[in-house]
Design brief:
The strands form two sheets. This protein has a five-stranded parallel sheet, sandwiched between helices. Strands 4-3-6-5 form a four-stranded mixed sheet. By secondary structure, the protein is an alpha/beta fold. The radius of gyration is 16 Å and the shape is globular. The longest helix is centred in the C-terminal third of the chain and has 17 residues, at about 175-190. Helix content is about 45%, strand content about 20%. The protein has one domain: Rossmann fold, CATH 3.40.50.300. The protein contains eight helices and nine strands. The structure holds guanosine-5'-monophosphate. Guanosine-5'-monophosphate binds near residues 74, 78, 83 and 103.
């Protein structure tokens, strides 16, 4: 059994992590060599989000039951909702010898760095150039003002963790960010340790 690398991608909500990953997984090398985790979450589904490809949307009760059964590799409560990464993605990546990508918040990332310290980890932070860009992107998600405010405050806290990451992508232009992220994933996946 061989597991290649584990890529932890973090960054504020609205930075464009999901969009970038979706686009990257249309590319052959990424599709063939990487697996992306799909988290279980208790927040409400947003417009356009798909069950099983964006997230698995579950009730709080179901989530807590799964948590008790030690179903999650890690989980966090983010602004009142639970978000958890199922363990089986790690097992699957190990079995197939593929790289694993997790798109999780900074706290989840810090926790995984501790428990997976014997694995090869690559930490990537995706951010935005200006606060107002984040505000505009979050507004498009049709969330209420209160939630947007909370997410912006959370983003401010998350930005303080940038120094803990190996790479920083400022997602100003989607095309450029895609190039950067793909370059990191490819280079790191073929790097001799
Ligand atoms: P959103 O609600 O905007 O989709 O996600 C909020 C935050 O939760 C984002 O930073 C996202 O990366 C993070 N997140 C998504 N899934 C998980 C997970 O399974 N665990 C943790 N710790 N964070 C997650």
């Amino acid at each position: 059994m061989k597991l290649s690398k584990i890529f932890i991608i973090s960054g504020p909500s609205g930075a464009g992590k999901t969009t970038l990953l979706k686009k990257l997984f249309l590319r052959k090398f990424i599709k063939n060599n990487f697996i992306r985790t799909v988290s279980f979450i208790t927040r409400k589904k947003r417009r356009g989000e798909k069950e099983g490809s964006d997230y698995f949307f579950v009730s709080r009760e179901k989530f807590l039951k799964l948590k008790e059964k030690k179903f999650f590799l890690e989980y966090q409560n983010i602004l009142g909702d639970y978000y958890g990464t199922p363990k089986y993605f790690l097992t699957k990546a190990k079995k197939l010898g593929k790289n694993l990508i997790l798109c999780i918040d900074v706290k989840g990332g810090m926790y995984l760095r501790k428990i997976l310290k014997n694995n090869k980890l690559v930490n990537i932070f995706i951010s935005v150039p200006y606060k107002n860009v984040l505000y505009e992107r979050l507004k498009k998600r049709a969330e209420n003002k209160e939630i947007i405010k909370k997410r912006i405050n959370l983003a401010k806290k998350e930005l303080q963790f940038i120094k803990k990451y190996d790479y920083l992508i400022i997602n100003e232009n989607l095309k450029d960010s895609l190039k950067f992220l793909e370059a990191i994933l490819i280079a790191e996946s073929i790097r001799r340790e």
